[in-house]
Structure formats: C-alpha cells, structure tokens
C-alpha cells in the first residue's frame, strides 16, 4: 500500500519536474513571444500606444510592462488576437490612447510644401521622398497613416485622406438575414 | 487524354427546377440602338485599362475606348457610333453598389463601324496573335470575365472543352446562341483549336437542351475533330472541374488547374466572340442576355454593351422598380441599383419572383441535419463552414474546413431546411480572410521599412561620430601646433594689453 502511494507520488513528482523543465526550456529557447505579438500589431508605427513603435510596444507587453489594449490602429480585433495569444482576458481599447480611425494615408499639398524635410525625418517607414528645398511626395503604397508627419510640418500642407472604398477593396458584408431575425 | 463515352457522376449536386422554357419561346431579340450607352471602363478581372478617348470625341462602332495596360487586363470598345459625352464615375452592376469609371456615349443612330479586316491567325506569329487578342476585349463571357488572351497563350493544351452545360436555372443565353448562331459557334471552336494547335474539342452539354443538341449534331455530322458529350442535368455540372470530371473522369484538386492537365475550358459565348473577332474583326461590343423571372415576356436579347438594363426589362414586360438578380438564382447577386447598363459579365437578368422572396426573409438555427453535406460537390462540411464563419473563427475555416475549396455553388443553401443563406456567410468570410492576408502583407512591408530606417539612423549616427572623430584626429598633427601657437599668441597679446593698461 505504502509502496504504491510512494510510486504514484514519485511519478507525479517526476512528471511535474519534466513539465516544469519543459516550460522553462521552451520559453527561453529563442523567445518568440515578442515576434508573435509584433506580428499581430498593425505596424503603423504611430506611437499612440506610448512606445516609439510597434516592436517596443510588443517588447513591453511581453515583459508585462504594458497592457494589451493600447493600440488604436489595431482596433478591437487586435486586442482580441493579443488576448488569445497571451491567454488573458479581453478588455476594450483604452480610450486614453486614442480611437480607431478608418485607414487613411497622408497627402502632401505639393504647391504649399517648402521642402523643409521635417516630415521626411518624422516618417517611421521612409515613405516620403524629396530633397531639401524641393517639394516632397508621399509614396502612397508605403504610407502607414501614422500621422507623425503632420505636427512637424511648418506650413500645414499635409492632409490625412481616408482610403475610399472601391470595387477592388470592397468586402462582402456579414449576412443581414441574421440581424433581421434577431429583431 | 483518353476519350470515352462514359459519364462520370460527380459527388453531390442538386436538381432544381430549371425554369428554362419561359425564356426560350421566342428567338433572340435585338432592341433599337439606345440613345445613350454607359460603358464601364473595366468589365473584366484585372487591371483597369487606359482610357484613350476624351469628352467630345467622335467614336465609331468597334473603336477602342480603353486599352489594356497589363497582361491581366482587357480592352473596352464602343458598341455603336456617336460622341463621348462624359467620362465619370457611374453606377455599375456590382454587388457592392459602388460606382466605377464609365464612358458615356451619345449614339448618332448610324451605327457606323471602324474599318475591319478579316484576321487570319495562321498568318500571325504567336506574339502578334497574343497582342491582337489583347485588343479584342474578349473575356470569359460565362460571367468570370477573365481575359481570354491569357488562356489562349499556351502550348501545353491538348484538349479543348466547350462548356455548354449552362446548368444554372433560368439562364438560356448559351442554349439560344447555340441554336441560332450554330455556324459562328463552330467557327469559334475551330479557330480556337487552330490557335491552340490542337486536333480535338469536346462540347459538354446538359441533356435539357435537346434543340441545341440536335442542331449541333446535324452541323457536326461529319466532323471528326469536334465531338459532343451530352451530360445529365445536375447542378452544378457547368462548374469547370465538375464538367471535366463528368466528361473525362479526371479529378482535379484545389491546388491544380485544368491547364496543368493540358485542358482548357471555354464557354459558348466566349467561343462565339473569338470566332466573330477573327472572321469579322468584331471586338466584344454586345452579348446575349437572358432576361427572365417575374416578367411578362421573358426573352433573350442580343444587347449592346452599355445598354441601360431598364430598356431590356421594359421590353420584357417588367416594371422599373422590380428587384433584379444578375446571374442565376444560385450564384448570382441582387443588383443594388437597377439603373445600370449591360456589361460583358451580364449573362442573365432575373426579376425576383415571390417564391424567391419568401425564401429570402428568415433564417432559422442550424439543426445539424447534414443535408448540406450530402449535396456539396466540393465535399466540404457546409454546416461547419457556416458555424465558423458566423462566429468569425477564420483560422479554423481555412485550415480545418478548407473554405477556399468552396465554389460558392449554393447547393447547400438550396437544400438547407433552416433557410440559412450559407453562401453569403462564406463570401463574407472569404473576403475578410483575403483582407486580413493583404493587411498582414502590408504590415510586413511596414515592419521591414521601419527596421531598415532604424538601421539607417543608427548607421548615420555612427558615421557622423566617426567623421567627427576623424576630424579631431586629423587636426591633431600639423594643425594642433598651429592652434596652440595661435592661442599662445593671443594670450600673449592679451597679457600685453593688460600690462599696457596698468602702466
Ligand atoms: S499604437 Fe501605433 S506604434 Fe503602437 S503598436 Fe499600435 S500601430 Fe504600433
Ligand atoms: S442543411 Fe442547414 S440546417 Fe442542415 S446541417 Fe446544413 S446548415 Fe444546418
Ligand atoms: S456553396 Fe460551397 S459549401 Fe455550399 S455546396 Fe457549394 S461548394 Fe459546398
């Protein structure tokens, strides 16, 4: 009887040890968690989360320094995904960090631009091209819509323009029938 | 490819009431040239072509209005002669209801053609032929609107399959075209075989079109290289892969395309267009549209591209406020606006019947009866697809339930006793997943560019520091002494001044 209990106890202890070791081992082995968080973040690089970019925010989340609801461009969907990944409770976006806006890109009014290069220095993804004293343009495809180029512009010639819905980017909507039924 | 007389039954499918007789009573009708044509610049899958005309220009019938700018793109032509009166955003027949750029032409009633010559494909190099085809405006007229020149630009094809199944209920445009334009149809097949340099073509046609079958059989009587295979009427036999299986017993998996097996499939209307293009130098300026459903006089119309659909509906005895489906009842979509015009994709205008409406209004919970599983020709689990699409569990949908194998045939919705609009859920989920994929691609680029920028800033900082250090290092040798001397001299001078003051 006692022998049986002892055996069972030792087996449990052994399994516990293995599991404990495995969890530590797996965690330290090429810690991918920052990258996995970063993969969920939208890469707008806007800094609204309070960190100088998505990767630093991802690092802060991984280190338990930041909450998962600080990224407005990622929206509610993003928070859900982070919650799923980290196995924590979902919480709504923290309004202090701003609200989710429709996807936009920056457009420079080229006739007003004085070519001061301040916006170029602000752009986190090098999406603005132009040399000193020449007007600048934004490479639409690369603009993340972070708005970081707006404040430095001394002549206020940059506008954020919402990306219009076209037949190319249009999406089928969630079937309305179920809504009808709910009513 | 081994040819047999055998028919290979595919899994699933349904046998809905065809409702085809109502639109085949009278011959194909042509209406007078509309006063105004509204021609969407892009009517195909692929890049928007480049507009070649301006407002005020006089244009002739068959003249190019917009030229393809890339390989996957197609030309758009003027369907009659007249004047370009506007180039602007306009309503188009699209499920989104969103507008797109259209060219409006006020017709002059003369219907005057541009100069035309017969094109002999055997005199053309394959490059020249490709370019010619690119300017023809021919796209898959079954509704898919994929540019045809790409499908013809292959030397790996051994079998041409003519998709004459026309399996969707209500639609009869191919049936009528085969009856009335038999010669042009055969010419189109022949020339397509010449272009693809293949000796044989098989027409796959459902047995619910006895008149067309008989006509084709008489015309093809002696032909050894074009054969007919009559297949049973089971929806969706007109789906490319289903048809290939029916006719050849060849199963093509999701990852593969018919071309990988040396097979190319063309629809009836597309082949007629190919024939007309080479024999009469006629680009796609018209198409046959079945106008049917809850109308007094359902009929097929040969309509100029750009014809306001209201003219067709009115002629068929419909009212201007009727709800219209573009395409068939299974795979079509309800037009958000009915003041749009005929496009290359428009094979059918179906005025919604009361019976359809009643099915459209309520959705009940899934009772897990698995009726949908029994009919799904793609052998999927429609009820699981539905469940996961409804609860937005997209990852599971693609990985475990193979959502993207779904051909959106609508068999599952058709049999569902709970009236669940299953396909609408699948379309929703598919477009969400596609959008997420695209966003993550865009995010990857942004991440890379941001990382590069950080690296660049770091490098520039380092370089600046190095330059400064270098400058400092350089000054040390010859200039340092000089500097010290200069400083010494300055100090000496100052001392001198002070001394002088003190005196
Ligand atoms: S708030 Fe901006 S910088 Fe922060 S994670 Fe979101 S997108 Fe990236
Ligand atoms: S047919 Fe409809 S009710 Fe039956 S299992 Fe499929 S989705 Fe559910
Ligand atoms: S619509 Fe998709 S899931 Fe439904 S029966 Fe057709 S292939 Fe299967």
From TrEMBL, chain A:
Protein location: Cell inner membrane
Residue numbers binding [4Fe-4S] cluster 1: 46, 49, 54, 71
Cofactor binding comment, as recorded: Binds 3 [4Fe-4S] clusters.
Record: residues binding [4Fe-4S] cluster 3: 123, 143, 146, 149
GO cellular component: plasma membrane
Membrane-spanning parts: none
First-level EC class: translocase
Described function: Part of a membrane-bound complex that couples electron transfer with translocation of ions across the membrane.
HAMAP family, per database record: RsxB_RnfB (MF_00463)
Subunit structure of this chain's protein: The complex is composed of six subunits: RnfA, RnfB, RnfC, RnfD, RnfE and RnfG.
Protein name, UniProt field: Ion-translocating oxidoreductase complex subunit B
Gene name as annotated: rnfB
TrEMBL record, chain B:
UniProt-listed GO biological process terms: electron transport chain
Gene3D superfamilies reported in the protein's UniProt record: 3.10.20.600, 3.30.70.20, NADH-ubiquinone oxidoreductase 51kDa subunit (3.40.50.11540)
Xref: SUPFAM superfamilies: alpha-helical ferredoxin, Nqo1 FMN-binding domain-like
PROSITE patterns named among the record's database cross-references: 4FE4S_FER_1, 4FE4S_FER_2
Keywords: 4Fe-4S, Cell inner membrane, Cell membrane, Electron transport, Iron, Iron-sulfur, Membrane, Metal-binding, Repeat, Translocase, Transport
GO molecular function: 4 iron, 4 sulfur cluster binding; electron transfer activity; metal ion binding
Disordered: region residues: 463-484
Domain of life: Bacteria
Localization of this protein: Cell inner membrane
Family membership noted in the UniProt record: Belongs to the 4Fe4S bacterial-type ferredoxin family. RnfC subfamily.
Keyword Metal-binding applies: yes
Known role: Part of a membrane-bound complex that couples electron transfer with translocation of ions across the membrane.
Gene: rnfC
InterPro entries: 4Fe4S_Fe-S-bd, 4Fe4S_Fe_S_CS, Ion_transpt_RnfC/RsxC, Nuo51_FMN-bd, Nuo51_FMN-bd_sf, RnfC_N, Soluble_ligand-bd
Residues bound to [4Fe-4S] cluster 1: 366, 369, 372, 416
Record's cofactor remark: Binds 2 [4Fe-4S] clusters per subunit.
EC number: 7.-.-.-
Subunit structure: The complex is composed of six subunits: RnfA, RnfB, RnfC, RnfD, RnfE and RnfG.
Protein name from the UniProt record: Ion-translocating oxidoreductase complex subunit C
Start and end residues of each 4Fe-4S ferredoxin-type domain: 355-386, 395-426
HAMAP family hit by this protein: RsxC_RnfC
Main location (coarse class): membrane
Protein's membrane topology: Peripheral membrane protein
Sites where the protein binds [4Fe-4S] cluster 2: 376, 406, 409, 412
Keyword Transport: yes
